[in-house]
Each structure stands twice: as C-alpha cells, then as structure tokens.
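Regression check, nicotinamide-adenine-dinucleotide case 439:
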Amino acid sequence: MGLDELHARISDKTAQLGVIGMGYVGLPVACVFAKAGLSVLGVDIDPQRIDKIAAGVSPIEGDEPGLAELLSEVVKTGGLRVTTDYEEVRACDVVTISVETPVDADHRPAYRALGSALRSLGPVMKPGVLVIVESTLAPGTMMSLVKPVLEDASGKRAGEHFYLGHCPERVMPGRLLNNLRFVSRVCGGETPEVTAAMISLYCHVVQADLDPADCVTAELVKTAENAYRDVNIAFANEVALICEAVGGDVWKVRDLVNKSPGRNMLLPGAGVGGHCIPKDPWLLVSRAQEQGVPIRLIPAAREINDTMPLHMAKLLDQALAEVGTAIDNARILVMGYTYLENSDDTRNSPSTVLVEALRQRGTEVVIHDPYVAEYQGELVEMAMGCDAAVMMVAHEVYRAVDFEELRSALRSPVLVDGRHAIPSLTGWVHRTIGQSFTP
Ligand SMILES: NC(=O)c1ccc[n+]([C@@H]2O[C@H](COP(=O)([O-])OP(=O)(O)OC[C@H]3O[C@@H](n4cnc5c(N)ncnc54)[C@H](O)[C@@H]3O)[C@@H](O)[C@H]2O)c1
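Current build output:
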C-alpha cells in the first residue's frame, strides 16, 4: 500500500490501528481511537494487564475521569481488542508505540523496552505501515535507533516499505482523556507527506492544534517542555530554601512575584517524581553531552529537585527537636507514597527517597496512601504511636482529615507539610516547606 492510499484509509477510518504498550499512555490512546470509530488492537507483553483490559477493567487505579467507563464501552462494542501476540499486528495499517523510555542510574537513555518492541514489530509489519512512536525520546533517537532497528528487524526500508513518525504524548495522570483530546500535539513525520498522514490520524481524536514538524523537532519539543518544567520547579524550590533561611514565606513571595508581568513562578514542594519529569531532562541533554557541549543548568535543576525529599527529612528533624524527640528514635507517619495527588503512580516517587533516608537513620516509618494497595488503611489508626506526620502528597482525602483526631493519635503534635496543603494549625508544631520559623 502506498502512502496516498494509507492516508485515504486513515481519513475514512478504515485503517486498522495497533497500539503497542498499554500503560498510562497507550491505554487511553487505544480507547479514544476506538471511540472515534477506528478498529484498534492493543498489544502489551504483560499478560495480567492484557487480561484485565480484555475484561473491560482499567488497570489504572487513581482518579482518571471517564477512562474506566470508556474502556468498558469500547471493549464491549469490539472497537478495542487486546493481545500479547505480535502476530496479530500483521493486520495493522498504523502502529503507535507507547512503551516506557526510562534512563539508567547514570542518566543515560535506557531503550530496552523500545528496542524489544521494535524487534518484535519488525517481522510482522504490513507493507506500507505507518509506525508512530509516541514514547518520549532523546533528540536524534528516531533516526539513530528506531529507523535502523526497524529496518534490520523487518528487512524493509523506511520511506519505501514503511513510514515513520514521532508524535510524543502530552498527557498527565489524572487528566489522561482530557489531555489527549484537548492538548495540542506535534506531529513529526519523516517527510511532509508522512506528517500530513499523521495529522489526518490525530484529528480524529485531538480537538486542538496539530503542529507539523520533523522527527527531531518533535523529539526536542517534548523533552524541552518537560525540562522547562523541571528547571522552573527547581527555581521555586531554591527560592523556598532561601525563604526558610532569611525569614520569608515562599507562598506569599510567589503570589507577589507572579504579579510582576511575565512571571510565572511554579510551586515548590517535597520533590519531583513520575515517569517523565525526572528523566526527560536527561533525555534532552544526552546527545549534546556526548558531543562535549557544556550542559549546566538542566543537571543543576535535577540535583535541586532530587534533594527536596532529603530537605523534608531535615524539616522533620528540626520539628521533632522542638518536642524533644530525636529523629533516629522516632516513628514517622508518611502521608502519600505516589508522586502525584489522587494518582496510583509511584514511579520515582519522592516518598521513596524520604523513606529510605529515614530508615537509614534508624527511624521507624509507617506509610499511608489511599491509592497504593500496600499502604492503604485508616489514617488515624496508623498514626497511633507515631511521633510526627509528614505530608508528601496532597491527596484530596488528606485535605479533609480531622486534624484534632490526628493530633490525639500522634504521640506529639508534629506535622511537616511538603505541599502547603494544610491551613495553619494551632496547638501543633506545624512546618511548611518554604516558610521560616523561630523555634
Ligand atoms: N505517564 C505519563 O504521564 C506520560 C506522559 C507523556 C509521555 N509519556 C511517555 O510515554 C511513554 C510510556 O509511558 P507510560 O507512562 O505509559 O509507561 P507505562 O510503563 O505505564 O506503560 C508502558 C507499557 O508498555 C509495555 N511494554 C513494555 N515493553 C513492551 C514490548 N516490548 N511490547 C509491548 N508492550 C511493552 C509495558 O508492559 C507497559 O504496560 C514513555 O516514553 C513516557 O515518557 C508518559
């Protein structure tokens, strides 16, 4: 099939779509395309995940408005089928890839999942298929890795026997469907004709700009937008540390800074987590660093954000000292273990860093999180016998906690708030990140 014919099939929705990787990104993508009327095949190597999705049940357990209902609907109508068997991908005219793209401990891109997906896809590619990578990539990866691996695995040539594009996702857990439908996208095709076919595909589901680009521009935009966020959060965190040191209140300072035209200071906090923000800055810089380009700001921002959970331990230490308890002998209630409020996603969670640091000092830790099966329980009961509580995630349920009850459960009324989620409490030793205090 030539590109013109494929483009026509995409436009009239007779093209069959394969979605490889049915995680936080791939699952909602598959659902919205199925709802739009395309026949969709979802592929994942995790059989438990596939069984769940095949039964119409979402494996994502955080608050994800509309997703569970939409999944159940498209599975029932047959618009979405799922499999672990790549053989079935032979029928697909378009394939999107949304597998994880983390970095290793040395911050280098780790493309094990991507490489494996490409090697499984290559031998089953239909002639003339359009392959779109939605996973986030280090700039240059489409041409230096995706293209040669697919050519090698398929024995086919890009631009002749198959077509390549990169359309990175801009979703965020908690708003997956909303972001998919209403946030603009960058469509980076190997050629302008491929880009045009990609735009025809995404306009079935995206009600926002679909900006044409080439592959490397799409790679750069995605990684730069997340690095931008990381750097700006690091700035807010650094100002918070300065405020604590010089007698200020970062929350008041931020409000007033943002009254100055063109300023948009972000929220400081107990740390940055998730699959994307902690690693996308490293993806952005990786190729340039290899070439000896001096990269300073982005790694410095990473370091600042990575140390914020340890700063929480320091605030705890100071607050406990006020009630005469040494942190090494204390028992601490950690409120929230995910990286984001009202989500079940624990990837790169700042709480893991705090918990490890506390345990290394001999501190006993009790973890509560309503979205993580392992840490569910009655908060007040779990607080009994603890010397202090530390709020790491501003889950909605924490805002509704009865603090009088919590106070009577704790051995001493100590609360450290890493998210500025709790209004001022009287009768407590209450510390909020970015606010100075006089002991
Ligand atoms: N999570 C987000 O909020 C978000 C937002 C924007 C972009 N992204 C990017 O999207 C990509 C996917 O992220 P995610 O959060 O959906 O990851 P995820 O871990 O939730 O999902 C990845 C899925 O791919 C599957 N998988 C791994 N190897 C496979 C293979 N060889 N064949 C088939 N399936 C395979 C895994 O089993 C998993 O279900 C990443 O590049 C990420 O940076 C994520």
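Comparison notes: Residues 3-208 form a domain with the Rossmann fold fold (CATH 3.40.50.720). The chain has two domains: 3-208, 214-439. No diff flagged against the previous build.
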